[in-house]
Design goal:
Structural class: alpha+beta
CATH superfamily of one domain: Ribosomal protein S16
Radius of gyration: 19 Å
Strand order of the largest sheet: 4-3-2-1-5
Low-confidence stretches: none
Helix content: 25-40%
Distance between the termini: 43 Å
CATH topology of one domain: S16 Ribosomal Protein, Chain: A
Strand content: 25-35%
Number of helices: 3
Number of strands: 5
Shape: extended
CATH class of one domain: Alpha Beta
Largest sheet: 5 strands, mixed
C-alpha cells in the first residue's frame, strides 16, 4: 500500500519536510516513489511554507494512496480533499479503537503462571 507522508529534512532545530509517495512498509527516510512537494513550518511568509504538486497528489489519491494524518490536515487546509469526509473516517476509526478496548476490558485474559 502506498502512503503519502512526510520525510524530515534539514538539521536540528531547523527542520523542513518533503511530502512523498512512499510504500507503507518503508522506513521514514527510505526509498521514495515520487516527491509531491514540501512543507517548511518555520518560514515566515505563509506563501513559502507549503508547496504541493496538486495534480500528482490527486493522481496518487485516485490510485489508492492513503495520506498520513498530518498530510491529510495539510490537504484539507489547501482544499485538495474534502474535510467532512475525512472527519467521518477519523470518527469511525476512533469508534473502532474504543470498541476494541471495551471488548478487551470486558474479557480479561488470565495471567500466565510463572515458574
Amino acid at each position: 500500500m502506498v502512503r503519502i507522508r512526510m520525510q524530515r529534512m534539514g538539521r536540528r532545530h531547523v527542520n523542513y519536510f518533503r511530502i512523498n509517495a512512499i510504500e507503507k512498509r518503508v522506513k521514514r527516510d527510505g526509498q521514495v516513489l515520487e516527491n509531491l512537494g514540501w512543507y517548511n513550518p518555520q518560514a515566515k511568509d505563509k506563501a513559502k511554507q507549503l508547496h504541493l504538486e496538486v495534480d500528482r497528489i490527486k493522481h496518487w489519491l485516485t490510485v489508492g494512496a492513503q495520506p498520513s494524518d498530518t498530510v491529510t490536515n495539510l490537504l484539507i487546509a489547501q482544499g485538495i480533499i474534502d474535510g467532512a469526509e475525512q472527519k467521518a473516517k477519523l470518527e469511525k476509526r476512533i469508534a473502532a479503537v474504543k470498541a476494541a478496548e471495551a471488548k478487551k476490558a470486558a474479557n480479561p485474559q488470565p495471567e500466565a503462571k510463572k515458574k
